[in-house]
User: What shape does this take?
Amino acid sequence: MNISNKKIAIVGLGYVGLPLAVEFGKHRPVLGFDINQARVAQLEAGHDNTLEVAPADLVSARQLSYSSNREDLKSCDIFIVTVPTPIDQANRPDLTPLVKASETVGSALKAGAIVIYESTVYPGCTEEICVPILEQKSGLKFNQDFFCGYSPERINPGDKVNTLTKIRKITSGSTPEVAKAVDSLYGSIITAGTFPAASLRVAEAAKVIENTQRDLNIALVNELSVIFDRLGIDTIDVLEAAGSKWNFLPFRPGMVGGHCIGVDPYYLTHKAEEVGYHPQVILAGRRINDNMARYCARNVIKLMLKNGIDVSRSTVGVMGVTFKENCPDIRNSKVADLIKELRQWNVNVVVSDPWADTEEVKHEYGIELGAIDADHPVDSLVVAVGHNEFRQSTPAALRALCRGDKPVLADVKALFDRNEAGEAGFTVFRL
Assistant: This one.
């Protein structure tokens, strides 16, 4: 199956879809499709507000065009779906974006087309959920008139080293011939190489366990952090000592948010329960990690009370609201949970983040971003995200942002020397 001259449509131009569209657009005709007209207009103007793709790279993709018109999809033969796969408030998979994208693509399918999914799903989702929609909307027969592939995204938002082409790509196809074609397609842009999986379901499972494994390792060190706090031992000191052994895994405690690690395990546990198995270890890890934001907030309150601070009349500054450092991505940020917990104690919370979009934060979480400075001092500080701008500060500089004799510094990411912070006048808490 020769697909080297086929036009590609990338459906969904977010953190995953846009870098893919740009890379393919350097070599062949590509249509970047997104239902958000404002996003399309922004990209046509040469700007990416996710900061994943620089303006110069957008220009370099000379064969890439953008559209929010579904009719334009009919000119394409290969469709790569890169829409979000979130969870709902009950931690159940929300396949709405995937279903709607499949309906849109199905309406544009023609004989010989290939639909490749990159969105993270549970094993079997492509064939059980997406394929019937494609068949119904197109009137075509799967593996006879059209075919499918699955190549899980491995984008790491904010990472300027491990970028799309430098991360090995898992590929798969619904027939052996299609599997080879899909692998060849990605092999044309991924310099790190590809890994052909045995089937669509294997590729789907491989993706979902990548983040489940990481989630569980972080849950372990988070639980250790809770234990060591009660024992009066600094967790980072313990991890650094244990890390002197060559095979000790260097995981650190933290609040696990974002669109992958805090979400993907629920896709796997959902499918496991569908087939009659009730996961224990995976869900235990999820419970631990989902509770860490509240745990951090409650420790701040406890130390403030211990220091004689009138909590209900206090102001706490929170530095950082994105789900990770040096990235504007606020999806599933656990900092929002920390802020919510602080507010339940009637604390006035001032939030500052040089990376986050003010309007997006307000729309998503109802949080107004502001400034934390010496002219508007706070009673305690939470450094929640490890942005470079925060790392460049010092305990003394942070102390100048606080009033009172005994402010609390919650250094969630352990950015600063705790002894220096203590000498600066802080009561320090860190995971």
Remarks:
- The chain has a mean pLDDT of 95.
- The CA atoms of residues 322 and 330 lie 4 Å apart.
- The radius of gyration is 24 Å.
- The first strand starts at residue 8 and ends at 11.
